Amino acid sequence: MLRSQFLTFGKRTDGSYSQHELMQSRAFIAFSHAEFETYLEVSSAKAVERAENHWKRTSRPSKAIAAMLVYRISKDIGLPSNPRDQGNGNRLDTLIGKAISLQKAAIKRNHGIKPENLSELFIPIGLHPEQIDETLLIQLRNFGERRGDQVHTNSQISLPKIRDPFDDELSDISFLIDEIEKFDLEIAKLK
């Protein structure tokens, strides 16, 4: 859909794109990045929701719940001196609720698609490092940097840096979509 909205012009074999066409390419890059970012955040939020619902249904912590406890609040967990008087703050259900809330907050404050963003979104919900393909990390890093170069500099500086909108930019985005589709299979396993 973004392609049909922004890449409304034809491919130029000689690479002589107008400034308007380069601006459209710049917008295509920026909005594609935003879509990837949103998709990753929503995927992480859905995995958190599945874990939370599983906990509420079964009163059994899943791998995602265990990971959130470890990555989000393990330093805050203390044992009471009297096991019958642990207070509400140290009860397992309270700690799990806090871990879930902290992960949801991390998802909301996410701003990016680079590997560190992926770590913040998915490692604390139980994604194992081997479930993340190195190719995906490279593509996310490169695309995140290119998008940053485009939107955080003025058009006089950023437009000359745009590679061919079809052979390079669209091709890289299509490749990244393929990589995210593979990653999505791993995300679906989280609960």
Quick structural summary:
The protein contains 8 helices and no strands. With 191 residues, it is mostly helical. α2 (19-58) runs antiparallel to α4 (92-108), α2 (19-58) packs across α6 and α6 (134-151) packs across α8 (165-187).
Layout of secondary structure:
Layout: H1 2-6, H2 19-58, H3 63-73, H4 92-108, H5 115-122, H6 134-151, H7 155-158, H8 165-187
Could you please describe the fold and organization of this structure?
This protein is mainly alpha-helical. The protein contains eight helices and no strands. Helix 2 crosses helix 6 and helix 2 runs parallel beside helix 8 (165-187). The two termini are 31 Å apart. 25% of the residues are buried. The model has no long low-confidence stretch (mean pLDDT 91).
Please state the CA-atom Rg, rounded to the nearest Å.
21 Å
Order of SSEs, N→C?
HHHHHHHH
How many DSSP-defined strands?
0
Largest sheet: none
Question: Which stretches are low in confidence, meaning pLDDT under 50 for 5 or more residues running?
Answer: none
Classify the beta-strand content into a percent band.
under 5%
Q: What is the tally of helical segments?
A: 8
Overall pLDDT confidence: 91
Shape by Cα distribution: elongated
Distance between the termini: 31 Å
Structural class: mainly alpha
Essential attributes:
elongated, mainly alpha, single chain, 191 residues, 8 helices
